[in-house]
Recover the amino acids of this structure.
């Protein structure tokens, strides 16, 4: 996306070697594309992973905050001691959202008749009912707070401990400055993965970045992941300042920066390393379906940029970088929402993919996704 | 809701004695709740009753006014002589609403091609057609005007005369001052009945009224009605001025005010009597479904307050009472709309009711409601 | 609509003689109306005709413009040489709209990954793919530009050459001044035809035109068309200035202007001729369904008024005529949208037509329409 360089991928990624054709794409496939396989846009995200459902700062001490995962309402409660827990956001009594309620010590009290639940979802008080006759409670979700994000495990709770949380190494490293990105995008999560991984879409950003030519120089696929390496060549326009802040100065064919985009289900990362192997940019991103049809996702991302030698230079330039990335993300949001709108209208996936990396990615998302089918209707 | 007092219910209501448990609620029931019975939220209101469809002042002389009952469009016409009649709001010709038309003497003329109907719905003129060849007309509804409300009988017209209209005794009594309340609320009418009858929901109004503890001290069920008596104890906060205007001064356990909430299908009343048996507050209220799915109702209520000894004191305090009741009703509206939203999302009634009065009320609404099932879809 | 005159239809239209009853309408028919025939509001417009999809000025040189025909997205591209072509508005790759793309010489380039199509829909470039491996392209539509309108043939392209385009004789004639009319109206196209052809709806425009009485004085039906002649008598109010600008001065029963409204499938015309046979007003209009349910149409019309003897008089009066026609069209739009809303609610056509001309018109629209049935749902 940003750098121009020749590739020396062995210094970066000593992974599975892949035979790559001279050009970055394979021969065209029959137009039918994914005939016989299920429609990717109707594959639900798999619930047996940790998903970020809110930024830490959104859940204030002594407050409750309502979120959603694939249509399921979940309340995040930060108790008076500062702990966070996650429950089904629905009082057992009359199903009104608990997030409209009142945090009471380490518990949450429904706003309507005052039914009260602890962090395990147990009902511990009904004001007008004897303690010995308390009704059943509500579902609790495993919940952890990492790197300023509140993660919830919406699937089988017995699997929660065995599933790793993301590491966020660059976020914790003071050599990097991190920007937190988040917005709602009205599309299935799969469009987001495909957008970021297919760097041939630089044409979309021609107004922000000039004419950049991406070149796919390696790809790998393994258990639960797909990744691809790119180098870039400028074919027209000037390098924008927002881009130059971070990456190698325009060096024509001699620059050596390489970008690796990786989907490790269900997350995605984009890393840029300089010719010497230094990680100069590290993006981690997750796309969390909000509604039951999974036609809207909330994006949570951390974008870490390595600080240059000169102290404070990056801080000074930060507003420009924010502006630049916002412009890029706005264009991406608009285009994926157009893709979703087209799918909704067609009632089927007519995608005609010619780029092998994206074909691999689509297979991965299908294989790792939930086993059910999202019921949707043609609009 | 308002008063604190010990109960002496025999002075108030010499009705069916009911064994009441020491606490106001019974032992918890199986979570399944109403298994095997039909979903109350899909029970249509029974059309064979008189329903208020507009305030008298909304239907001006020589004007037509369009309203709805459970999805059926109805036009209320006030003729030049001041009478009101009600017709199907749909011209027989091309089905455009008659309320967009023109009142012509004692008839209504469609705005499009001028077809004209009298109070019985008969077509009495088509300007470009001979009188001897007039087409059929439209349906007429029985219609009466009482206490500033226009009532329509949407069901079998043969039953209209045998069904009583509400009495509105306090509205007519000059010892009372009456406020008219009305608004649209986006929920099934049953949530409205349950909200008003379950005074354990005082927790919802804690910001308006402080912590009030309702105590159910008697309940009765008979043909077409359910009712319950409450006394109240303040557990925290101060008595608000809006409340004190009407009810006994804070008197701790010695006050004797008692509130009776009664659903007499399809209406509801809430009355407060002092220890001496004087009716100090008299609320009559009806919830009229507007749409075919009966997910929105328009509330029509008359709230009558007995004038205190000092002349004009109530008039001076009236704005405060208006403000106070508006705040209370706003909280109630928000919560019942949350209940409806939860039901819509779930596609079923997951209500887990533990309060016997409300269980009785739910049975009553099911038994008295229409025999069909509202077809709804999970959203 | 405008003139008052006795009829001398032989000077105007020497067509099929029709026995007309003394009054302008026939005896009332059974209320059931069109029992046994298909619901006209569910008859799709027939695609094997030329439809205007945009005004020429909307498609600027070097720009693409997205339009719709009955739910099908179509992009109109004006190339750098000024030609216009029409394609399916959906990139073959990921189905995003081509109208968001970039015109490149005589071709259109998708904004996302830069896939490029020529005027025949052939894919002529994928920037990251060898020319020898180009994928299939997109559908192209026959497209012609006439009288400031861009016409597209959405049906079977093999029939395009044999179907005539409208003539627009008055638009090209300098003795006439032409106003272009266009707006979206939220109804099935059939309501538009019926509205214009049934001049008994003058009652609707009573505030603009006073009380005018239309008299049907002749009607004809032939292969693919229905037409009707009217004269008008003023029964109340004064002739408005906007109307007098164009038509005979109020002359009571002696004026001889006659209006002919004609549906020549799928278009409609309204022409007014003076007693001497001069064409004083010539309206051509088409109603193009936009959505798949054909519940919204875009109207394209040309209204040509013959210039009077005094030079510039018409130009000076033009703003008044614009204002007058806008008022009339606004009332028509509101009423046909009410008709559509009633149909949507009822889920069926309850029309009870008593006017023979409109019955003929409805038969014509059913016979000439598409063979499929628009799937709709009761709302």
């Amino acid at each position: 996306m940003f750098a121009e360089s020749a590739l020396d991928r062995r210094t970066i990624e000593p992974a599975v070697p892949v035979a790559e054709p001279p050009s970055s794409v394979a021969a065209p496939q029959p137009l039918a594309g994914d005939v016989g396989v299920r429609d990717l846009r109707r594959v639900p995200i798999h619930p047996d992973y940790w998903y970020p459902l809110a930024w830490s700062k959104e859940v204030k001490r002594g407050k409750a905050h309502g979120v959603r995962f694939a249509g399921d309402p979940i309340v995040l409660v930060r108790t008076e001691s500062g702990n966070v827990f996650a429950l089904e956001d629905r009082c057992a009594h009359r199903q009104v959202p608990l997030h409209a309620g009142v945090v009471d010590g380490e518990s949450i009290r429904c706003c309507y008749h005052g039914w009260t639940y602890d962090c395990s979802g147990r009902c511990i008080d009904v004001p007008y009912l004897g303690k010995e006759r308390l009704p059943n409670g509500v579902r609790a979700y495993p919940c952890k707070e990492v790197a300023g994000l509140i993660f919830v495990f919406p699937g089988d709770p017995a699997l929660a401990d065995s599933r790793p949380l993301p590491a966020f190494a660059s976020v914790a490293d003071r050599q990097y400055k991190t920007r937190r990105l988040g917005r709602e995008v009205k599309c299935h999560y799969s469009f987001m993965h495909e957008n970021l991984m297919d760097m041939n879409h630089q044409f979309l950003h021609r107004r922000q970045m000039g004419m950049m030519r991406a070149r796919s120089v390696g790809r790998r696929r393994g258990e639960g992941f797909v990744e691809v390496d790119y180098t870039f060549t400028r074919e027209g326009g000037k390098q924008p300042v927002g881009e130059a802040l971070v990456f190698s100065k325009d060096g024509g064919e001699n620059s050596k920066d390489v970008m690796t985009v990786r989907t490790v289900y269900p997350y995605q990362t984009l890393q840029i390393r300089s010719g010497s192997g230094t990680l100069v940019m590290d993006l981690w991103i997750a796309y969390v379906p909000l509604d039951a049809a999974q036609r809207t996702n909330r994006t949570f991302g951390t974008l870490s940029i390595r600080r240059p030698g000169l102290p404070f230079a990056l801080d000074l330039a930060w507003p420009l970088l924010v502006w630049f990335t916002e412009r890029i993300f706005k264009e991406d949001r608009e285009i994926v929402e157009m893709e979703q709108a087209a799918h909704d209208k067609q009632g089927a996936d007519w995608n005609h993919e010619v780029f092998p990396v994206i074909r691999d990615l689509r297979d991965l998302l299908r294989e790792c996704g939930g086993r059910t089918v999202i019921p949707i209707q043609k609009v």
Observations:
- The interface with chain A takes residues 71, 73, 90, 92-97, 100, 109, 111-114, 126-130, 133-136 of chain C (CB under 8 Å).
- The two ends of chain C are 35 Å apart (CA to CA).
